[in-house]
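Forum: Protein Structure Q&A
Topic: Joint prediction for protein chains with partners

I've read a bunch of threads here and the consensus seems to be that you should model interacting components together rather than docking separate models afterwards. I'd like to see that in practice. Below is the full input, 246 residues plus whatever partners are listed. Could one of the regulars post the assembled result?
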Amino acid sequence: MGKDSKHIVSKSDRLKWQSLKDATQKSDVSFYINPRRVSAGDIRKRQDSVRNGNGTVRPHLLVP
Amino acid sequence: MNFNYPGYGLKLIQRQRCLDGSPHLFTNIYKYYSPVTKYFYIARAEYHEHNTFAVKFYCKKDRKSEFKYSKIVNRGDCGNIVISCAMVIPILLQEFPTASFAFAASRSVDVKKQTIEGFVRTQRFKLYAYVMPLKFGFETFDHYAYDEISCYLLHNKQSQSTVEEIQEMFSNTYSNLMDIGT
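Posted by a regular:
Agreed with the consensus. Here's the joint model:
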């Protein structure tokens, strides 16, 4: 998992960390903040994109 | 990466009722063990109004820590540990076939360095947002990602509640969602 995880979370993607002591960033959560619908096309594309050696291997879905 | 990890067997420990008058009605608590990390993990599926579960997990050794959802165990086996938690969904769908599922990806805390991650697109969120479309298709659920608050919603297409109703319920229940220890 260690090596694979680099494909998902690259160093450049990482957000700045802040001091726990000085963590003043409080969440005033509104769930209305720009929900992004992941379309069926995006999901199919993601499932098609995973590869395992010889070619495309569809992931095993837990729920269709 | 197809994320075809088998995961580990889940054992239902208990169903805990929540009587605080909030939309949170009860919690199913599951336990599983990773022979790689040699730790037990606890998965909590918190059932709310609008037939929606909030799914969480933490390493059992951290159960008394206020950072239990935020600590990085750093012993590997992440794939199996995350998939094991995700396996509560097909189990719960047997009992609640029209249920929806929500995930809040915690901000990581590095206790040694005394630092905490920002709450927009956390490391955990990036992982969950990558894995969800690989393990859950679009026949049963509509998928919604909330980048600013690092949350992900699987909205059951048979649900009688709208996404907006679920959002409002969570928004009212967890106004401090991304604060430490929530």
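The mean pLDDT of chain A is 68.
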